[in-house]
Every structure is written in C-alpha cells, then in structure tokens.
Design brief:
Layout (H helix, E strand, L loop, with lengths): L19 E9 H9 L3 E2 L11 H13 L6 E6 L8 E2 L2 E2 L9 E6 L1 H12 L11 E4 L4 E4 L10 E3 L6 H14 L3 H17 L1 E8 L3 H9 L10 H9 L6 H11 L10 H11 L6 H5 L6 H26 L10 H13 L5 H17 L7 H15 L17 H4 L7 H12 L13 H4 L8 E3 L3 H6 L4 H4 L5 E3 L2 H7 L4 H12 L3 H7 L4 H8 L3 H19 L44
Parallel strand pairs: 2-6, 3-10
Antiparallel strand pairs: 1-10, 3-6, 4-5, 7-8, 7-9, 11-12
Length: about 600
C-alpha cells in the first residue's frame, strides 16, 4: 500500500449511478470481424494505421488455424463520441447512426483487424499486407505478390468470407491435384476453423470515459500497454490536432537533455491545466469538448512550460535525466509553475527549490489523489499571483531512519534523492581518489557506480538481513574496479587502503561521499548498526535545510531502532497515474 490514496472518480458516491457490470460472452471471430465492417464495432484512433508487420500477421492466422488461443477482446458499448477509423483492410466501414450506442474496441484491435483484413479484403494493390493465401500442401500462410490466381493448392483467404467461392476452389483442388482428396480435407478444416473459432469477449456498458479509464489503463494482453493518453487521443482527434503527436513533439524537444522519457500521462495532466482545467481524470476528460485550436494552444503552452521546467531541473537541481526525478508527478506541478511564471524572480526560484526538495524528501507524491491535485494547483496559482511567498504543500517532515528503512531500488524515490544528493557533492572514489563519472552514475538504468559501503557478501556472511544490507545508508558511489578490489572484505580491512590512499585528504574524500568521520570510525570497527545510524543522520541533516526544515529539529535514528527484519522495507513508488481504483501501485518507470 505504501500510503498511496487512489483518486476517487468524480461522480462516485452513494448517489452516483452504478456502472453496468462487464458482460462476458463467447463469439465467433468471423462474426466479430464482420461487425467491424457494419459499424457495430468501431476502432478508436489509438494508432494512425495498422502497425503489425507481415510475420506477426501470419503468426496470428496460423494460431487460429491450429486452434491456439489468441486472447480475449474488450468492447465498450457507449454513446460517447470517439474518433474512429473509417477504413480497415482497404474496406469502407459503415458509419453508425447518430446517438446510437456503438461498441468501441478497446483491446484486440490488431487481432480483429487482421482477421477482418484477411477475410474481407477486396483491394487491387498486389503489395497489400492483406494479399494473403493458405498453401494447403505446405500448411502455411503466405503473402502473395500479384493479383493472378495462385496455384490451385493455394487458397486466397478472402474466399473464406464467401463459401460458394471457397468450395468451388476446393472442388477444383480435389479434381486436378494428385493428392486432391487430402488437400480438400485440409481446406475444409481451414474453413471450419475460421468459421467456428471463438474467443472470449467482455463488453463494458453504461460507463463514462472516466469509469472506463482505470480498466483501459490495465490492458496489456498484446504486449502493447494502452493508457489514458491513447483513450484521450481518440476522444480529441481531428485532422488539425493529434494529442499523441503533440506530446511526442514536446518529448522530442527535450531529447537533447535526456528528458524524452517523461511519462505521457504526466504531460497530459499539464495539457488539461493549460486548457483551463485541472490535473485530475475528470478535467482530462473535458479536453474532448474543446476545439482543435484550443487544444493546439494548450499543447503549445505545455511544451514551453516543460522546456523551462527541464532547464530548472538541469541547472538548479542538477538532475541530468528524467529517469532520476524522484516522482514523475513532481513534473506536473513544476510545469504548471513555469507555465504561470515563465521567468521567476530569485526569491521565487528559491521557493521552487524548497518545494522540490520538500516533496521529494517527504515522499509527498507516493499517493497523489484528486484532493491533493486540486490543492496543489491552487497553491501554484496563489504563488504565481504573489498571494503566497511559497508553494504551500501538506508535506510532513520525515524521520531520519528513512535512509535505513528504504531500499536502493530502481523505483525508489529516496534512492534517486540519494543519487542527486551525492551528485551535488561530486563524489570521489574512496580507493583511488578519482572523480566518479556522474553521467554514467545518473544514467540510472545499470546503476554500475552505486555499491555497498559494507560489502554485500561480507554482510551476508554475518547473517545480516537483505533489507539492512541494501538500505540507502549503506550505498555510496564507487567505480566497478574499486568495488571488485573491495570484494567481500570487512571494512576494517579495506578501509586501511582508503586511509593510505587519501592521506591528509581523507576528510575531503569522506565529505564528498556524505560520510561523517564518526561513521567512518564506526565502519573501521565493523560496527554496521552504528555506521547506518550515523550515515542516516548525515544524509538527513544535509537535506532538511534544502527542504526548508531545521536540522536541529530532526528526529535522529537510534541504534536500537534500526530494523533487522526482512519486513523493514518501505518502498517509495510513484503513482504514475491516479486512474487505478484498486490498491495496485504503478512504479516509476526508470
């Protein structure tokens, strides 16, 4: 749980209408494909065009022919108006009647499109991905490269939609091929398989976009996760505006500074705010009511705000990549600040810095619900108008033992905070005196420059629990070569080399690694518990002033409070979107 609070959907509560329960059914795949052509099932514009390549098309058809499962499909029956495809496989799709409920295909678009294109194609382009046949002799699907009739043992797949044409060819195969009866039997089985193949279908009904969004967010049956961004793309698409294109243009502008990996959902919140709304799902849903010109203006304002935000993070906070931002939703608030205040004064910049460090240190964004979103947006507005000298946020000062209870993991916000803090002090390799390559260290994916001060294998041999071994207070920046030299040696052994190499510069080397002299002396005595407590105190006293708190008021960890059990891990995970309504947490993507 980690204390996160999921957003309560707008309109929920005792008086809100209860959404219709999902309705499961089992349907023939050719019937589902036919419903696409008649306009009963619509394909929202999640993608500009069909994206599957030839091998994947053939693999899906082969799975159907063999009776292998290909997954279920999810439909949403609604009167909501989403932009949808009007052609598939070169075929025109009938338009639904106005205000008539239709079924939007939320999951299974590529699979049903493949079946639809294969069975109903009537195009004239020999290079089309739908120019398909089945070789009865080889028992394999293939793409043809011309429009001529293939050999009789190769059956065009679009004949499956017309039994008369299909069985006319079966008769020809049976009559002229030497192994005609066997080939005809294979053809009959192929026809039956495509006519009788059934898949599970779940239909959602009587739901708004806001109700559907949490379900939509979790779809990943084909390996391509769908998000609220995809859903809103379909809801706002026009020839003059494409939501995803606008977001990708923004990310492209940030690529040079290694910030192109920002979650699109985070940016979507800012587009909503730039359009006069808020950060919540309900406000995002209102984007579909806007004209293309208004959406373009909001996207442009958001892009400009993000460029200023990234400049601030890179120069003031010294964050070199989007992957090292403790919480992705910090970006949403920061971008709104820089949208409303394009050129902050020195006092305003100081207040923005305090806000960043405070929300990161307090773990404020580990649970960001609708109420907090509204409160934070109001605080930003008040700050931008000069009504407040700070960006007010309800963040409580944490205890120093967070550095002992939190683990060094890729999706741990405090691990990123530790990395940023170390980078500010330009750490020196304790064995060689060489400067650590911060570019490699803050690349973050491999984390090769981060190692245990008390070696992991040494602590394992001492029967120390894993959670204590991997806690943040035991992590320093160290080159891989030096880490190999240390191996599993006791600190009392390898620290002699550190003292010898550093000489009179020892304190400077320790300071750059945020290790006090007392903590170093505790390590020389192999006192792991005391080292952790002292290192945690150093880290905390460094960060508290940055967050606007007094280090004199810090609650310091006591040695007997340092956890020793496997259950001591409290992991920070950023809710990358508040849409899920269960207790599940989506970790920061880094």
């Amino acid at each position: 749980m980690n204390g996160e609070v999921p957003e309560v959907p707008i309109g929920s509560g005792p008086t809100a209408p209860v959404p219709k329960e999902p309705t499961p059914s089992v349907d023939r795949i050719d019937v589902l494909a036919g419903r696409i052509l008649t306009g009963d099932i619509l394909l929202p514009k999640f993608q500009r065009s069909f994206v599957w390549e030839a091998p994947k098309i053939l693999a899906l058809l082969d799975s159907v022919a063999r009776g292998y499962p290909i997954g279920s499909v999810l439909l949403w029956q609604s009167r909501e108006e989403l932009r949808s495809e009007n052609r598939i496989g070169g075929l025109e799709i009938e338009l639904p009647k106005p205000d008539y409920p239709v079924n939007y295909l939320l999951d299974g678009q590529q699979r049903l499109s493949t079946i639809c294109g294969a069975m109903f194609w009537n195009g004239t382009d020999p290079r089309s991905r739908w120019n398909l046949a089945y070789d009865l002799r080889k028992r394999a699907f293939l793409h043809l490269d011309n429009l001529d009739d293939p050999p009789s043992h190769q059956v065009r797949l679009n004949k499956l939609a017309d039994p008369a044409k299909f069985f006319a060819q079966v008769a020809v195969v049976s009559g002229i091929e030497p192994d005609g009866e066997e080939l005809a039997d294979r053809a009959n089985k192929l026809f039956s398989r495509f006519k009788d193949y059934k898949i599970a279908t779940v239909t959602l009904g009587d739901m708004t976009i806001e109700d559907v969004a949490p379900i939509f967010e979790r779809i990943n049956s084909t390996g391509t996760p769908l998000t609220i961004v995809d859903l809103m793309r379909a809801a706002t698409w026009s020839p003059d505006f494409d939501l995803v294109d606008s977001i990708e243009e923004l990310l492209g502008a940030l690529a040079d500074k290694d910030f192109s990996g920002i979650d699109k959902k985070v940016i979507l919140r800012n587009i909503s705010a730039s359009a006069g709304g808020g950060f919540s799902t309900g406000s995002i849903d209102d984007l579909r009511k806007l004209k293309a010109d208004d959406l373009q203006t909001a996207a442009k304002a958001t892009k400009d705000a993000y460029l200023r935000t990234v400049d601030f993070l890179a120069t003031d906070i010294r964050i070199s990549s989007a992957r090292v931002i403790p919480y992705s939703n910090q970006l949403t608030v920061l971008a709104e600040v820089f949208r409303l205040i394009p050129t902050p004064s020195s006092d305003q910049l100081a207040a923005i810095r305090v806000w960043f460090w405070r929300t990161a240190l307090a773990g404020y964004f580990s649970g960001w619900n609708t109420g907090q979103m509204a409160s934070d947006q109001n605080s930003v507005v008040a700050f931008s108008k000069g009504a407040s000298t700070e960006i007010e946020v309800a963040a409580s000062e944490p205890r120093a033992d967070i550095w002992v209870t939190r683990q060094f993991r890729a999706n741990n916000a405090h691990a990123k905070l530790l990395a940023i803090s170390l980078a500010h002090h330009s750490p020196i390799d304790l064995l060689t005196g060489a400067a650590i390559d911060l570019g490699h260290a803050l690349a973050w994916e491999n984390q090769k420059e981060f190692h245990h001060f008390f070696p992991r294998d040494y602590l394992k041999n001492q029967k120390v629990p894993r959670t204590r071994i991997n806690c943040l207070a035991n992590i320093v920046m160290l080159t891989s070569a030096s880490n190999k030299r240390i191996s599993n040696r006791a600190p009392s052994d390898y620290l002699k080399e550190v003292e010898s190499a550093a000489g009179e510069n020892l304190q400077t080397w320790l300071d750059t690694n945020l290790i006090s002299r007392d903590a170093f002396e505790a390590a020389k005595e192999d006192d792991f518990g005391r080292f952790l407590a002292l290192r945690a105190e150093t880290l905390h006293r460094l960060l508290l002033p940055l967050a606007g708190w007094s280090p004199d008021d810090a609650v310091e960890p006591q040695m007997d409070e340092v956890p020793t059990s496997e259950g001591s891990d409290t992991e920070d995970s950023d809710l990358t979107d508040e849409l899920p309504t269960s207790d599940a947490v989506a970790p920061d993507s880094i």
